[in-house]
Write a structure and sequence with these properties.
The chain has 157 residues and is of the alpha+beta class. Helices cover 34% and strands 20% of the residues. The chain is built from five helices and five strands. The chain has helices at residues 13-27, 34-42, 93-107, 122-130, 148-153, and strands at residues 4-7, 49-54, 58-67, 76-84, 113-115. The protein has a five-stranded mixed β-sheet with strand order 1-2-3-4-5, sandwiched between helices. Strand 3 and strand 4 (76-84) form a beta hairpin. The longest helix has 15 residues, at 13-27. The radius of gyration is 17 Å and the shape is globular.
């Protein structure tokens, strides 16, 4: 199978939208309608970037952004999502996307790449372990979601 990695092109929006729908189904979570996904892709927050794997159609993607500061006040990349469509899994696409992301970090002078992983997905953990990534048990992941940001953010100081 031949494929290439590249940055997302605006013409890819429709294909990426379909991969997003597949991803949401895979995780068994809510998925907005395609028109909302397309609108969101047209209005990405500043700093959000996508690498895509192209094999005559979008086979997967890595969504990431720059973070600062990190240890020693160094910058880095935060990988928000890595996803490969079902028909392309096991072909090395995830590894190639991660290798390309590492090269981007090096080219831009970043010192690290961070991400989270579901602790119950043993196949995913094995994949990340095989990349040489170190599990950071000393960090705990927090999230404000649903109405929690509203509750915290109401009083203005």
């Amino acid at each position: 199978m031949q494929f290439s990695t590249r940055f997302l092109d605006p013409a890819d929006r429709g294909q990426l939208s379909r991969v997003f729908v597949e991803m949401q189904e895979y995780y068994a979570v809510f998925c907005p309608p395609e028109e909302v996904i397309l609108q969101d892709l047209d209005n990405l927050p500043v700093g959000v970037e996508f690498l895509v794997a192209d094999a005559d159609r979008l086979a997967g993607f890595a969504a990431f952004s720059t973070i600062y500061p990190g240890p020693g006040l160094a910058s880095g990349l935060f990988l928000k999502e890595l996803f490969v469509s079902e028909g392309f899994r096991g072909a090395g696409i995830g590894r190639i996307l991660m290798r390309r992301l590492a090269n981007i970090a090096i080219e831009r002078g970043h010192r690290r790449i961070d991400w989270t992983a579901d602790v119950e997905n043993s196949r995913l953990l094995q994949f990340y372990d095989a990349l040489g990534a170190a599990r950071k048990q000393e960090k705990l992941f927090y999230r404000l979601d649903g109405d929690a940001p509203k509750g915290l953010g109401t009083p203005q100081e």
